[in-house]
Structures are given as structure tokens and as C-alpha cells.
Amino acid sequence: MSEILVERRGAVARVRLNRPERLNAIDVPAMRNALTGALDALDADTTVHVVILTGAGDRAFSTGWDLSSLGDPAEDYDDATLMQILTENAAALMRVWEIRQPVIAAINGYALGAGASLALLCDLAIAAETAQLGEPEIRHWALPPVLIMPYLAGSKAAHLHAYTGEVISAGEMFPLGLVNAVVPLGALEDAAWELGGRIARVPPLSVQTAKRSLKQAYERMGFREAQHHHRALDAALLRADVPEKRRLMEILRSQGLSAFLKARDR
User: Fold this and answer.
1) What is the domain partition of the chain in residue ranges?
2) Is 173 helix (H, G, I), strand (E, B) or coil?
3) Is 192:112 a contact under the CB 8 Å cutoff?
4) Which overall architecture, per CATH, does domain 4-264 show?
């Protein structure tokens, strides 16, 4: 079965990350490229006015990049290759920011790491009451693939989130302005389709022009330039030769992701 599913209801399309057994972790490069391809196709389809993005199952929107498909940045890649991977990964996530239609994130569970970036880059978001969002990369010598939190939340909240990597509950997301609504898990799907339908009834050219105007405002705030500097700093941190980091990466290679996460959070 495809790891990226696309379905339609009139002018609204839903893209679903379909890897629930892995909490919708995004395999690199295959699943990452499939997601980009699906978004490219929707961007080119003039009959699609709104896109919904969600994860399969009721446990996770996405837990980010599948670490089992990635190597150790400090040992397995030279500087140029690492920067290329970081750039390609960020570009895949940025497609939801760049496509002409508004994108609604339906956050149905964990949105972690690159999964958090993907949800936050959507134009709108509805979270299930069980949803949790976090960028835990700081706890294993990395930065989020896209720097988006400072553009959405207040300064103090963005700094706290960046420094601790702790998850944010659905109830905390709403007052921070990270989601438009929080609903029971069982109501999330209907809420996302309903919001998509409301937007689809507005003239599509008007909506798409509004999105372009809003994105250009972020660009004038230095959003794109900030991403370039952010990736350079991320690459430097990933390449850092730290004994504790080497120990964790060895646990990941020899014992798997569960053991890695337990050792990281000890």
C-alpha cells in the first residue's frame, strides 16, 4: 500500500501519511520524495482549491524523519553531502508553504521533529485533544529542519521550546497560536473537511492571492534568509564530535530507535 494517500471531496484534497506502524515517520528519500510528488501534483491541479494534510491512524500525525534510514552525520557524510541532504529535506517540508492552495494540518496525534515542522508550515491547523507537538532534536545534537516557531509563537515560548525540546499538548498549542482549533479525536476528520469546504467556497484566485501576500510578508521578515543560516548551524551541530553523541549513535545502530530514545531521555 502506498505510503502517501490522496483523496478528493469536490475541490478539497486530503494527503495522508500512511505509515501508521512507524507512527508515520517519513522514510528518506523514498517517502519524502513521494510526499513532494503528491504536493507538486496538487499544486498543478487547478480543480483543487484546498489541501488537508494528516497522518494515518489515531496515534501520530508524523514523528518526523525515520532515523533508521539516516546515517550518522558526524561520520557518514562529508560537509557538502550533509548540506545537500538538509537542503533537500527542508525543501520537501516547505512544499506545503509554497503551493498555491491553503493547506490545513489535521494533527491527529504526535507531531514530532520534522513532523512538527510539517504541521507548523501548514497555513491552518486543527489538533485533536490527544495531539502533542515537539521539536526534540536539540536533545540529540540537531536543530529542527525548518525554523518556523519564532514566526508563529511569542519570543519566550519559542525560546523555551527550542531550548528544552519538550512536547506541547493540544491545550497549550491553541493559546500559543499554533492551531486554529482543538477538537475531540473522533471529530477531527469532519472538522478538517468542514474547514476545507468553507475555504473552497471562496473564489480560489482570491484565496491563492491572499496566500501569496501572506507568504511575501514572511519573506520580507527575513524568513528565507533565516532558513539558510539555520541549516548552516544545524550542519555544524550535526557534525560536532561529542563523546555522548557518539555513544547515542552507537546505541541507535546496534540496538535500534527505542533504545536510542530511552538513552537520550535518561
Assistant:
1) 4-264
2) helix
3) no
4) Alpha-Beta Complex (3.90)
129 flagged as catalytic: no
Q: Which amino acid is at 48?
A: V
The rounded mean pLDDT for the chain is 94
What does the pLDDT look like over 63-107, one tens digit per residue? 999 987 776 676 778 899 999 999 999 999 999 999 999 999 999
Phi, psi of 174 (to 5 degrees): -65, -50
CA of 211: how far to CAs of 50, 62, 96, 173, 206, in Å? Answer: 12, 25, 11, 22, 9
Reported as a single tens digit per residue, the pLDDT across 117-170 is 999 999 999 999 999 999 999 988 899 999 999 999 999 999 999 999 999 999
Where b means 16+ CB within 10 Å and e means fewer, 55-86 reads bbbeebbbbbbbbeeeeebbeebeeeebbebb
Active-site annotation holder among 88, 98, 137, 225: 137
Separation in Å, CA 208 to CA 13, 99, 177, 204: 15, 9, 22, 6
Q: Classify residue 109 by burial, with Cβ atoms within 10 Å: 0-12, 13-18, 19+.
A: buried
Cis peptide before 136 (omega within 30 of 0): no
| Cell numbers found for residue 177 | 497560536
Q: Does the predicted model carry a pTM greater than 0.90? A: yes
